[in-house]
Amino acid sequence: MRACFGCAQIAIAAVAWWFVGSAAVAQTPISFRFNDPEAPQMRQALNVFEQLNPGIKVDMQRVTWADAQQQYLREAAVGAAPDVAQLAQVWPRAFGAAGALRPVDDLIEKTNIGVAGWDQYIARDMQQGADGKTYAIPFTVDTFAMVYNKALLKAAGYDEFPKTWQDLRAASLAVRRKTGKTGFGFPAGSCGTPAIWFFLNFYWWSKGWALIDKGPDGKFFINISADQIAEGFDYYDQFLKDGDNPKSNLSICLWGAPEIVEDMVKGEAAIASVPDAVGVQIVNTFKQRFPDKQVPFAAATHPADVNGSKTFFGGRSLGISANSKHVDEAWQLIRFLSQPDPTFTRFYTNYVQPQKPILNYDRLPAEIAPGFTEQIKLARTWGPYGLGPVAIPFMWNAVGRAAGSVFIGEKSSKDAASELREAIAKELAKNQH
Amino acid sequence: MKGQRRFIVTMLTPAFFFLVCFYLYPTVFNVANSLTDLSLFGLRCGGDWIGVANYIDLVTSPDFRRVLWNTVIWLTAIGVTVRLLAGLGLAFLLTSRTIRKYRLETIGRVLLLVPWATPPIVAILIWRWMLDTRVGIINALLTGLGIVDQPIPFLASAAWVWPALITIITWNTLPLVTLTFVASLQSLPSELVEAAEVDGATRLQVMRYIYIPHLKPAIIVMGLMSTFWTFNNFVYVWLTTGAGPGLYTNVMATEVYIKAFIDGRLGYSSAVGVLMAAIMAGFGLIYLRVIAQRELRESF
């Protein structure tokens, strides 16, 4: 009797295990490479996806952005890339050419995507390869705006944010002289992906110049002289020379560095040029730390010149790897993440989606939303930079290093500018067919 | 005899296999890559043969002289010299009569091991924090004591960045050098020193005619090994300064990384790697042939 009871227990356990095992086997596992800091929030969104799609299990992987590009390319070369990957918006073209991404035109045609269809997406050109195929779907869009401390600017004699580059220079110096605080505190350090790359391009683009442009004949060319490059270097170097951007910022490379956020929150700096996610961080950190104080921040567009105020559409895309064995499931995940609800309404709330009907900064704090909304209307895509024959990572690194050599006094702005222009020209000649 | 030979070959085969797989094959593969235009974006289809174009590009590039200077002079020559001199100084201190008199040898050696036991990444983070312009303790002391008016951006200043880097590398790698010299000093018969002192030799003469000749083999070996380790160093430079500010601290190892993973030029970066290996091989040959053989012959 006892032996039979024991056998019955084993049999029941075996049947139960078989059912559970069968259920697990029925699930399709897909891998999703996600590199932004909001990993816990994204995991929550993925949990909802799994609840809605019980046949799919999502394994979230993470890699730092600094390593993400080369890691993915190496994995793709041996067929080991994740099924879905979060990419920088300027990568799909090159990744598509490298055979690392699967074209998604057939999937878009089958099911469409987004709140109002593929046609309503911005920055679609950046997702296309030279072969005209679409290799990724824009996931988020961001841009940089000038976040500033109204009280500090007022103390320096400025009721409104400066409109021109010279005004910005004067305002920053005035903040330093009248309040002792940092004026425009920007990261001036060198690394592979330095923030100074963005600031210099904003300056050059506002004047109608560009490192790479496309001519009417379809050929790419350098649309800036060495003197004009040097002018940009000199402009930002002046902040460091006069001390309204402290020399300690030579040690900071990235746009969202904790030091930049802290300086703004503590009222040690008056102005920062940051993307919306960092702007949100500044405002929210201030509110948490000083709940009884009025938020002193606002946002404004970057200074303008003959070509207006210019920043870029930044952001992320989602792509399916060329070696993925679960394309349908991967596409289902991308479609889910492309809807506002629940990903962007409940979890990934610091970010904006690149679809025209919902391209707004309504979820940003009220203090900075108008400035960012105004700035994104003036933004441009990377265009020729991303579509041309000179890779953005090459230019990004080269510009940052050249600027760094000027800021520490190693080279004159003219020498650094000439060498930079020569290096880009060489790369352009080598790769343009 | 035949059986013995077969036994030897069988026993050596695994080691041989290991050498071929993990040394010979990668070396040949790397040299082959250096003769192509292999790119990170073209891994699937490989690179096209371009002969020695990468090497020509490398030696004619405007940055090459600076990279070579940084690697050979700043990182290696100065770095190794500082390490050997500091190691010698510490070794003499640890074996001095004063330390023995107060029974501080054990504490001294334990303290010496702390930097060596610290993983390089941790050492770099600690030093970066200490050298930080805003919150670093070194700047706090300097400004607090009135030695400087403004904090010094040690890792972002052309005047200070190399001394700061060499300090970090020396701090983390000094213990091995010091302990080697300590072991060598301890093997020196004390009667030699006593006899020299009885004969009226000054401290300088004792150092020159007894200590240094005795330490020569250790100095030669540590000099060679330190040079190899330092010349190829990537971790310390990349994690401390990222080869910046600008490209001020760019060395050959960081140039390999930048060209391979930022510019995507795997063929070119392979050429840099091959050149590094060739330089070290040439150095090793000259060092062993000219200096080491002569010195070791004299010592023994």
Describe the structure.
The complex is a heterodimer of chains A (433) and B (300). Chain A has 433 residues and is α/β, with parallel strands linked by helices. Chain A has two domains: 146 residues, Periplasmic binding protein-like II (D-Maltodextrin-Binding Protein, domain 2); 232 residues, D-Maltodextrin-Binding Protein, domain 2, CATH 3.40.190.10. Chain A has 17 helices and eleven strands. In chain A, α2 links the parallel β1 and β2. The longest helix of chain A has 25 residues. Chain B is mainly alpha-helical and 300 residues long. Chain B has a single domain, classed as MetI-like fold (Orthogonal Bundle). In chain B, 75% of the residues lie in helices and 0% in strands. Chain B has 13 helices and no strands. In chain B, α1 crosses α13, α2 packs across α13 and α12 runs antiparallel to α13. Chain B is globular, with a radius of gyration of 24 Å. The model of chain B has no long low-confidence stretch (mean pLDDT 91). Classes of the chains: A alpha/beta (433), B mainly alpha (300). Chains A and B meet through α3, α4 and α16 of A and α12 of B.
